[in-house]
Amino acid sequence: MKNEYLTIGQMAKLNNVSTQKLRLYDKRNILKPEFLDEKNGYRYYHIEQCDQLDLIYTMQICGMTLNQIKNQLNEYSPDKLRNSLINQETILKQKIEQLNRHLRTVKHLESNLNKMSSLPPDGQIVMEYLPERKIDTLKTDVDLFERSDYGYEIMMREFKSYMIKHNLPLSYFFNVGTIIKKSDFKNQNYHSKTVFIFVDNNYPKRVTQQILPENMYMTLYSDNPKDEIIYAKKLFQEIQQRDLIIAGDYICEVIFNPAIKTKNRVSLKYKIQVPVVNNI
């Protein structure tokens, strides 16, 4: 047998691939041995087929399926391959963006966990500077404080359904919070039908998005949702005593919600926050 012909084992070893992979390519009519020895029935690859094997490997690295590769090889043209690569580039960019969103979510959740060890005691009022933040909102049919048992969970489910319906990335579905309008909070009307998530510039543009401006916020942390109205009233009284002006909506942000029950209670940490300015 001439040196340019290779057995399947030699072809596999020379190209650092498995014989199983070569058999798969053969079975799928992607790369078949070129020469049949009629004396012994053995089939052999020609060494020049190594270049074709390199191309197949490169196409697979690019994320093409075996069917796509087969079509490219059977109906090869530079234009067709170029168009296929342009399409694959779009697909890979979308996957990279999706992975980047997932990575941002992991980092955010990790940051939330790190915060847990340095938060002030529950019920302690703290002044915090908070940078500008962007949120996407949804007005629900549920009033959080009228359904204090499962109101928050129902509002969350409505928001998740809204995201799925509008094909919004669910990697942003964490730290779901609720809002009391500034006018309601000032009049101590505790109603909340608006639920929100934090978003960034990579999130699809929606008319429901709002900006929470940078500001000093009077904040308070708690791990018991049933105490929220008590603490909301406590914040309001403190604002009055310090002669501060309420500068925006009341925000309740869930910091951590692992849904892990401890002693018949769900371990949850949230932060209520109200932007305030001095009364000059």
Percent range for β-strand residues: 15-25%
| Total domains | 2
Radius of gyration: 30 Å
> What's the number of helices?
8
Helix content: 25-40%
State the CATH topology of the largest domain.
Multidrug-efflux Transporter 1 Regulator Bmrr, Chain A
Number of strands: 14
Average pLDDT level: 89
Give the overall form.
rod-shaped
Look at the structure and give the CATH class of the largest domain: Alpha Beta
Helix-strand makeup class: alpha+beta
At CATH level 2, the architecture of the largest domain is: Alpha-Beta Barrel
Describe the biggest sheet?
A: 9 strands, antiparallel
CATH-wise, what's the superfamily of the largest domain?
Regulatory factor, effector binding domain
SSE string, helix = H, strand = E? Answer: EHHEEHHHEEHEHEEEHEEEEE
The oligomeric state is single chain
The N- and C-terminal alpha carbons lie at a distance of 97 Å
Low-pLDDT ranges: none
Topology (SSEs and partners):
Elements lengths: L4 E2 L1 H8 L3 H9 L7 E2 L6 E4 L2 H13 L4 H9 L3 H38 L9 E6 L2 E7 L11 H15 L11 E4 L1 H5 L7 E6 L9 E4 L2 E8 L5 H14 L2 E3 L3 E7 L4 E2 L2 E2 L2 E10 L2
Antiparallel strand pairs: 1-3, 2-3, 4-9, 5-7, 5-8, 6-7, 6-11, 9-14, 10-14, 11-14, 12-13
Give the tags.
single chain, 280 residues, alpha+beta, Multidrug-efflux Transporter Regulator, Chain: A, Domain 2, Multidrug-efflux Transporter 1 Regulator Bmrr, Chain A, 2 domains, nine-stranded antiparallel sheet, three-stranded antiparallel sheet, 8 helices, 14 strands
Write up this protein.
This protein is rod-shaped. The protein folds into two domains: 5-76, Multidrug-efflux Transporter Regulator, Chain: A, Domain 2 (Orthogonal Bundle), CATH 1.10.1660; 119-278, Multidrug-efflux Transporter 1 Regulator Bmrr, Chain A (Alpha-Beta Barrel), CATH 3.20.80.10. The strands form three sheets. Strands 4, 5, 6, 7, 8, 9, 10, 11 and 14 form a nine-stranded antiparallel β-sheet that branches. Strands 1-3-2 form a three-stranded antiparallel β-sheet. The chain is built from eight helices and 14 strands. The longest helix has 38 residues, at 78-115. The chain is 40% helix and 24% strand. The mean pLDDT is 89. The N and C termini lie far apart (97 Å). Strand 2 and strand 3 (43-46) form a beta hairpin. It has helices spanning 8-15, 19-27, 49-61, 66-74, 78-115, 151-165, 182-186, 228-241, and strands at residues 5-6, 35-36, 43-46, 125-130, 133-139, 177-180, 194-199, 209-212, 215-222, 244-246, 250-256, 261-262, 265-266, 269-278. It is of the alpha+beta class and 280 residues long.
